[in-house]
Amino acid sequence: MKKSVKDLIILENECLNDDSHKIVFQAPDVDSDILPGQFANVLVKDSQTTFLRRPFSFYDVDVDEKSFSLIIKKVGDGTRKLCSVRPGEELSVIYPLGSGFTTPEKDEKVLLIGGGSGIAPMMLMAKKFAPQTSNIHILLGARSQKDHIVLDEFEKVGNLLLTTEDGSIGEKGYVTNHSIFKEISSFDKIYTCGPNPMMEAIGKIAKDNNIFCEVSLENTMGCGFGVCLCCVTPTQEGNKCVCTDGPVFNINELKW
Amino acid sequence: MKKSVKDLIILENECLNDDSHKIVFQAPDVDSDILPGQFANVLVKDSQTTFLRRPFSFYDVDVDEKSFSLIIKKVGDGTRKLCSVRPGEELSVIYPLGSGFTTPEKDEKVLLIGGGSGIAPMMLMAKKFAPQTSNIHILLGARSQKDHIVLDEFEKVGNLLLTTEDGSIGEKGYVTNHSIFKEISSFDKIYTCGPNPMMEAIGKIAKDNNIFCEVSLENTMGCGFGVCLCCVTPTQEGNKCVCTDGPVFNINELKW
Amino acid sequence: MVKLAVNIDKIQLKNPVLTASGTFGYGKEFEDFIDLDRLGGYIVKGTTLHPRQGNDYPRMAETPAGMLNAVGLQNKGVDYFIDSIYPELTKYNSHMIVNLSGSTVEDYVIAAEKLNELEHMPAIELNISCPNVKEGGMAFGVSCAGAESVVKAVREVYKKTLIVKLSPNVTDVTEIARAVEAAGADSVSLINTLLGMAVDAEKRKPILSTVTGGLSGPAVKPVALRMVWQVFNAVKVPVIGIGGIMNATDAIEFMLAGATAVELGTANFIDPAVTVKVVEGIEDYMKRHSIDDVNDLIGALEV
Amino acid sequence: MVKLAVNIDKIQLKNPVLTASGTFGYGKEFEDFIDLDRLGGYIVKGTTLHPRQGNDYPRMAETPAGMLNAVGLQNKGVDYFIDSIYPELTKYNSHMIVNLSGSTVEDYVIAAEKLNELEHMPAIELNISCPNVKEGGMAFGVSCAGAESVVKAVREVYKKTLIVKLSPNVTDVTEIARAVEAAGADSVSLINTLLGMAVDAEKRKPILSTVTGGLSGPAVKPVALRMVWQVFNAVKVPVIGIGGIMNATDAIEFMLAGATAVELGTANFIDPAVTVKVVEGIEDYMKRHSIDDVNDLIGALEV
Ligand SMILES: Cc1cc2nc3c(=O)[nH]c(=O)nc-3n(C[C@H](O)[C@H](O)[C@H](O)COP(=O)(O)OP(=O)(O)OC[C@H]3O[C@@H](n4cnc5c(N)ncnc54)[C@H](O)[C@@H]3O)c2cc1C
Ligand SMILES: Cc1cc2nc3c(=O)[nH]c(=O)nc-3n(C[C@H](O)[C@H](O)[C@H](O)COP(=O)(O)OP(=O)(O)OC[C@H]3O[C@@H](n4cnc5c(N)ncnc54)[C@H](O)[C@@H]3O)c2cc1C
Ligand SMILES: Cc1cc2nc3c(=O)[nH]c(=O)nc-3n(C[C@H](O)[C@H](O)[C@H](O)COP(=O)(O)O)c2cc1C
Ligand SMILES: Cc1cc2nc3c(=O)[nH]c(=O)nc-3n(C[C@H](O)[C@H](O)[C@H](O)COP(=O)(O)O)c2cc1C
Ligand code: FES
Ligand code: FES
Q: How far is CA A114 from CA A83, A135, A198, B188, in A?
């Protein structure tokens, strides 16, 4: 699918909890080429503090309805502003950008791990591959029960496992403390997106157990399509752009 | 009345024609001290192009209802944005600013002349003094009938005279072409606000006829309360600030 | 209670928040909006030996996240200041500081001598960086020799705290800072405005009567922060940070970069009560970060 | 039909819209968004003799109406450019220009010699103003002697159109402009980024790994316009205007101030199709103002 910059009409803006909104965009040209891990770069209109676009991973793509949705967590002025958009208004979006996660094989046992706003690409991942396998396990971590969102959606697409730091739902602790890691060697592939410390810890476990592992990085971006060279991460082959060479990287490529 | 900077709730936003809106602000502290010619300096929120406040003359002040209204004509990004405010939203306003027109005597025959957005202070002027005199004549000029707004309101407060450049309503031509000027020497005082060329022409007529005349200038402003010295106009006593020494000046003070 | 007081040479400011010259009138214009005694101090209008009419209107242009001005030091002269303004201002107990400009070294010196006599004024800020006047002004501030000559001469006659305000329109601001420090400055403040220009494409004319003018506001903040950081690392005297400070976070950024105090300029136009909010915001920040003494923020950037 | 073509030395550009180096990749990254052949030309990534890894992440900070970058000239070197990139780019018929940087005069010269051989590249833009590298870069661009030495040496080996890109981080940009003109530059382009800095108050750290970086975007437009105007009045060679151009109105302001062509930088990040919109907007403006030839806009400011 060609990249494009377009003004897209907002179909829905659903408040998921205090912090996060699901925003649905009408996108006449979406097709099934969009991969989990790819992202859209959204312009924040009418903000005195937000000059550059803001990147968000695709949470869902509906090829029939010609729409896609993002989950946006409010962390600063840009995301706050985006979360106040009203249906019918338009936002300028550049999409689809970046590389996606690789496709697991039919019979492989797969663990998807999402933390914070990193859960978004995990949904698209699970949805894309759920029809082909029953072996998808989804592990989501959050601070507390109220921070866990769209759980019912995730339950539909895989075996859902949860952790919370305060133990209010699921197992208590960080995702990497979850008991599933006791049987981690039974997994063929791990895919993860979330805060860097979480992904580094997961990457280490994967390496130790010789498991294929892809992570999706969230470096700050200037352009989102490979021309400013601001989003780089060090790799075995030197600095690479997270926006075009990634955001998805195999942990073996990174210098973790 | 002390000057203050406050977030004021918008009570009403009435579209008057393609270009102009009447916006009503709830202002708990307004009192009858506010003079015609004084203005409010409004902050345009959420605009990437509008950094400084925008000044507007009081159009109406309702001491009982604790509110005031402005008439805002869309000429650029700031005014466009302000005209899209919704009732219930808040705008930051500094008010009241500037000097007002002087009060005519009870028996004086007075001509108020407004052009473009300069009609706003003429309404407050007429309203304030209508109870004291029946001798108020209000002359308003515009390009065409559709540019004449709030005429019914003006009819209530004085003898209304109109001009249009295309003759679609009132006399054809500029305000200074109006037939009332044939009897101009019968007037004691002229008060005017509008484009500078209009006010200069009126000022000349007033001088020639030895009639007291005050004009309200609309220089661009940095602060609006006398500290940046950006809004100056040359006067007989050197540069003076339009925002504090004015916006109302006697034509004899100016270098016209 | 957190400790907010800082010292600039012999002066103790009750907090690090000052106002920038040319944006705060004589202070009294703000009486309706704030209690002036809440400020660390206030720097009043640029004053010259002789009265000046300033430049022609238009003197102002709005620009992205900033503004250009070309006021050109309109003021009634130092004698008028001393006779008519100064006595009124002695009622405030926050430190009042006058910003002094001149066209010749002699002008600076004569005016500084007069200001030296004012009991309730503990300091002057020497403006060697005004981009909006034809003679003097910035000309002094953009070369070491020029800066040195004015500062040395004024230092001879002015015995209280001498703050020198630096121009950002230079290749190496640290050079000038070192030169004025060596010439006897007790503190340096920076930045004055960046020389800029605005054009009205529709009218095909410059917007300012003077074509070019001085850029201020948030747009200049990154340049100002960089220069404050450079100068902090180059001189020993306290640095006062100026440029695009709109809120407490901005003020703290300047202090972390090395500023002992800050001046708020253009922000006063947008919100005439901003200075007091910044004082409060610094206090809040210190409480949140468990910092007892604001002096611990100065130059505390971890690089 | 309005005439949009302008000349920079021997090159005719089909319209005055170019792209700024470091913001347009190698051009091909924009293929999905625009037809490159609609542009006057495109200036590709900053290239150096030897490959460079650039600076560490974070290399970017958002600032009011702008951004700071500290990329530090990450690129695979001039040989890689010539062998792997250049052949691909010859398919576009808009003029391709490479931006050349170096740490030593020798580096510049060797690379320029190689670029001189490229048939489909009519010009190079000599970057003597990069603020993000330790050696060379801006150091050459902030003194007349430095600028002269590089330009003279490159001029000896580079026979096509030589554009020299100037740094705004100087006291007097006209001095440098005159020096590079005298040394043989066929055109000057300005401005490169203003040296700035950003601080994270919460973390008490600089945002950039390099502490300071280069400011670009609308925030710098007033400074850029002023310098273009000054340089236009100081040299005879054509001036290329750069700095905060986001739309056709901005581009026209630069042309009125004296620019023969303009480069769009940061604007490409916000809207990758902006360049073509600017071409169209200039055409619209000319029609509205009954201007037949875009050359009539150059320096047409009425002062
Ligand atoms: C490829 C990619 C995919 C993403 N997907 C999603 C998603 O699906 N949902 C979602 O909610 N968010 C996602 N993000 C993160 C999102 O882009 C940022 O939260 C957003 O840009 C913040 O904008 P802001 O204006 O609200 O915050 P700002 O005001 O810019 O920043 C607020 C605070 O957050 C920090 N911050 C901002 N951006 C980042 C970042 N990229 N990395 C680390 N710290 C940062 C800042 O340092 C600051 O402290 C993604 C980011 C990337 C690069
Ligand atoms: C004391 C005072 C009272 C005013 N009262 C009213 C009022 O009651 N109703 C009303 O609609 N307007 C009034 N104005 C004018 C109003 O302030 C401006 O129209 C407004 O600031 C324009 O803002 P903008 O962002 O929409 O336009 P901008 O984008 O700033 O400018 C758009 C165009 O208008 C021109 N322009 C902007 N401001 C002025 C000005 N002050 N003088 C001349 N040209 C200008 C600009 O040069 C530009 O060409 C008043 C102005 C002053 C100083
Ligand atoms: C309208 C205006 C007038 C100014 N006049 C003076 C002056 O007289 N003397 C001076 O040293 N600086 C003057 N300045 C510069 C400010 O004091 C300050 O250095 C500059 O505006 C940067 O700070 P800011 O971004 O907070 O405004 C003036 C600035 C403005 C905007
Ligand atoms: C991310 C980034 C990278 C840049 N890299 C280069 C470069 O390699 N060589 C160069 O001469 N200028 C470089 N520049 C400067 C731009 O070409 C341009 O001069 C500057 O950004 C001002 O224009 P703008 O405000 O339109 O972006 C870079 C700018 C940015 C933002
Ligand atoms: S964000 Fe610009 S290259 Fe990745
Ligand atoms: S607008 Fe600032 S002094 Fe009048």
A: 21, 17, 9, 80
Instruction: Name residue D293's beta-bridge partners.
Output: D3
Mean pLDDT of A82-95: 96
Helix (H, G, I), strand (E, B) or coil at A221: coil
Of B5, B219, B225, Cβ closest to residue C57: B219
End-to-end CA distance of chain B: 32
| A210: three-class secondary structure by DSSP | coil
Residue A174 phi/psi, 5-degree rounding, is: -80, 165
Span from the CA of D282 to the centroid of ligand 4 (angstroms): 23
Please report residues of D whose CB lies closer than 8 A to that of A49: 64
Instruction: Note whether A137 and A36 are same-domain residues.
Output: no
Does residue D152 have a pLDDT over 90? yes
Q: Which numbered atom of ligand 5 lies nearest the CA of A226?
A: 3
Instruction: Give the gap in angstroms from C-alpha C200 to the nearest C-alpha of chain B.
Output: 13
Of the listed D13, D130, D225, D257, which one is catalytic?
A: D130
Per the structure block, which two tokens stand in for A228? 């400013």
Candidates C192, C234, C156; CA nearest to C73 is: C192
- Range of weakest confidence among A3-7, D100-104, D132-136: D132-136
CB-based contacts of A234, cutoff 8 Å, min separation 6: A254, A255, D56, D57
Tell me which ligand sits closest to the C-alpha of residue C166: 3
Domain residue limits at B62: 4-97
Does residue A125 sit within a domain?
yes
CA distance B20 to chain C (A): 23
Q: What is the largest CA-CA distance in chain D?
A: 57
Q: What is the mean pLDDT of chain B?
A: 93
**Domain tally for chain A?**
2
Task: Assess D57–A contact: CB distance below 8 Å, yes or no.
Answer: yes
CA A244/CA A238 separation, integer angstroms = 14
Claim to verify: residue B73 and residue B178 sit in the same structural domain: no
Contact call for residues D283 and D2 (beta carbons, < 8 A) = yes
What residue's CA is closest to ligand 1, atom 2? Answer: A218
Those chains having 3 or more beta-carbon pairs within 8 angstroms of chain A are: B, D
- Give percent of chain C with pLDDT exceeding 70: 97
CA of C64 to the centre of ligand 4 (A): 18
Over residues A159-178, the mean pLDDT reads 92
Query: Which of C:119-178 have CB within 8 Å of B?
Result: none
CA distances from A76 to A114, D212, D266 (A): 21, 23, 22
pLDDT per residue over C231-290, tens digit each? 999 999 999 999 999 999 999 999 999 999 999 999 999 999 999 999 999 999 999 999
Please tell me whether the interface predicted TM-score (ipTM) of this complex is above 0.90. Answer: yes
Tell me, yes or no, whether A164 and A220 share the same domain: yes
With bands split at pLDDT 50, 70 and 90, how would you rate the model's confidence at C3? very high
In a shared domain, residues B135 and B181: yes
Ligand 5 neighbour A228 (Cβ under 6 A) = yes
A3 reaches D (C-beta below 8 A) = yes
**Is some CB atom of chain C closer than 8 A to the CB atom of B220?**
yes
Distance of alpha carbon C61 from alpha carbon C209, whole angstroms = 10
Cα torsion for B105, B106, B109, B113, to the nearest 10°? 70
Residue D118, pLDDT above cutoff 90: yes
**Whether residue D181 has pLDDT greater than 60:** yes
In DSSP terms, D126 is beta-bridged to: D100, D164
Classified as helix, coil or strand, B108 is coil
Across residues C148-168, what is the average pLDDT? 96
Q: Which residues constitute the domain of residue C191?
A: 6-297
* Residue C137: band (very low, low, confident or very high) from pLDDT cuts 50, 70, 90: low
Overall average pLDDT of the A166-176 stretch: 92
Which of C142, C225, C254, C286 to mutate against chain D (most D CBs within 10 Å)?
A: C225
- Decide if D1 is inside a domain: no
